[in-house]
Amino acid sequence: MVACFMAAPTLRQHEGAGSNLLIPQGVGGTPENGGKYDPVRAYDRQYAEVARNRKEDRHQTLNSSSDAELDDPESSPLIPRDPEDIEMAAVTPYTSTTSLVPAVPRTHDDVETTALAQDSSLDSGQAPRRTVTTPHSTTTSLASTVRGSSTTEGKDIDGDDLLERSFAPSHLCFLEYDKNAEPIGYRTRKVTDWVREHKGDHSGTDYVFLSYTRAQFNVFTEEGLDEMGVEDPEARKTLLHIAAFDRATLERHGIDAAHQAGKKAFWWDFECIKNPDGSAAATVNNPEVYGICDIARAAHSMVVLVGPSVESKKTRPLRAYSEEALAQWLDEGGRAYSQETMTEWMQDWGSRLWTLPEILLISPEEPVKVFAIGGPRPPEKWAKRNFASRPVWKDAKLVRQLIDHYESSIHLEPLELLSLAMECFFHRVAGKRFEGDKAYALMGLLRRRPMVNTEDSEFTAFARLSLANDSESLLERLICLQPLEVDKPWHYQRDSWDSKLWDIEPKCQIAGISDDETVVLDGAYGATIEWSTMKPVYFFTRPTFRRTLTKWTLRGSPYYLIAAIALVYFSASTISQINQFRADIQADRRAKGQPPVAEADLPSADTLVGLLALFVFLLISALGLSLAAPAMILNLYVGKFWNTQASFVGMEGVPAKLGLVEEYLFAADHGRLKWSAAGSTLSRHKESEDYKGDCIGLPPLVFDNTGYDSEGSHLRAFTIIDTYSMTAMAFRAARPPTAVVVCGQEGGMQRAALCSYDWKRNTFSREQVVRLKTAVLDRMFRMDRFRFSFKRRAVSQEAAKTA
């Protein structure tokens, strides 16, 4: 493809280059912005949804001011009116608060006292559970973690907007024994009640963690099915029957696992996560789910229970639970335990979102017991470090690094930990709770955890998590990556140049989170791309002696020519006048009959003849200089540019001859403009044949406009010319970018996002990422706060008509 260039800029250039030799002019344009790129005039004045500095949050208000006082500045107590008021205002700062974070008890005793005051005590005369019965109702002591779902929230000591980490589970399933010390059932008890009854003895609260996936074990109640929206009576009946059977299976194995481990309690989410009223929770929307990571950390050991999927159980009815009924059901359905079915069950368990943090955070001191339905007894024991070598995870190479980190055999830096966790967590299957669940599951690995907001998107939830922790500017680095395919999600980390996040050094900072996949950036370097015209570009070459002499000779040649013509004319006319005067004298004397005057006595023109010969020589020389002007001009402007006006010029398509572009911009093609060797994904390079070891850029391959972005927009070819570094790069994008935003540095080059501008959202959207030479930063202006989106958001037809 060849770009269509307009002829108007060419005419202007040639007219400016040779309009009049009497008035010296350069072939380039005039410098602008002090030789720097055109700045990007953009500034974001809107509130961010989540500000990096909480003082900038829209919910920050002045305690000493009401809405009326804010509307009327004269009534505000913050405005001093007397000299004494000025002094007091200077030494007495005002206090601020946020309406999102209510006050809560700060000490552990206060929390426990508050929880005990709200708790309804257990009936001490109730008989213990024997086999499979409805769990006894108690009230949870863990404060709500979902913002806005309760009047109290558990908060971290580091800040009011962070969740408090729990030390232990609020409820456990405590075993009940017969006279022979054999377990006959269990009772779900509040841990604080159990400790109080045993006079502060915590030794019996050590527990076994039961891990399973609800894709294999259905534990939903009537309330849970209502939340899931299951309305078909037959489907509800089937699911409830399977749920009763699966709950009995889990309870039986939980009791056996705790007894075999020598512990008095076990934990599983269905029984030990309670609703605020103390009833059994379906855990679909229960906020206590986000504290399971701390429960896994505090557990003595873990038991993994796997079996056939719930979907396979719907095809054939289940009878009441018993070991014999289960074995018969498995045999009849061809789902009996084997190495093949075991592998399938473990892979199903390993593909789920919430099982990954459980195995990562469990203590490595005890092996993990893997129970398989219908499998051998006693169960297999797997060391935590050996899980990656078993057929459990398809991304075992990544998970292994996380396991090694939590076993302290290797140490991952915060950036490495979070980037690896992103790759592992965001590709896992999760039951639909909230959009940000994958980020909330990941936050269990980190110390600082933001409050759960049920309205957060996946990106917003992760961005809040990243900003709350020392993530070493992960999001800023993520902006600088160029995905291999344009339709990849924001968390995709495979870069077109094979760079990792830690290879990139950020040059900007995220000041806040705007909305889905949109952040507020500050401090980036930016420049505007010119698309409307190709005006002459100012340039400067070094004033060598040869250039100086050529310049004065070339610029003086009109004066030399005029002077030579004038001197030749003057000398020739003078000689003619002298000869005519001599002839007139002799003729006059002949007319009077007088003898002629001797030639020696008459005026002589011999000297003027010599001068005329000299002037003719000068005239010929001046004519020669005039004829040699093109060659002299060429000699004057060849060589290296020592300075040029920095600008980005954009064009659609890929020019077949880059020299033609240089001629339009710099009046002549001298081969200074080169293709970038590694500037874009279409760039190519090779070793120079003339200078061994030199890397030279090659023209991009000719290709068709094929491909679409994530919105279905057609990808087109564009070319950007950098007149400062004298390079050209071709790329593909759905829209022509209007700004170059440098966000990071990698491999000795600058990572720049080519952005289009969405005026409806006041947002710059990333179209493509390119690599620029580091020297361009010297000619760029820094940008103030602006909104940056990982991709352009599609606008509905209704919104477009409204706009």
From TrEMBL:
It comes from the Eukaryota. Keywords: Membrane, Transmembrane, Transmembrane helix. Residues 131-145 have a biased composition (Low complexity). The keyword Transmembrane helix applies. The chain crosses the membrane at residues 552-572, 611-638. Residues 52-83, 117-161 are annotated as: Disordered. This is 3-hydroxyisobutyrate dehydrogenase protein. It comes from Apiospora kogelbergensis. The lineage of its organism: Eukaryota, Fungi, Dikarya, Ascomycota, Pezizomycotina.
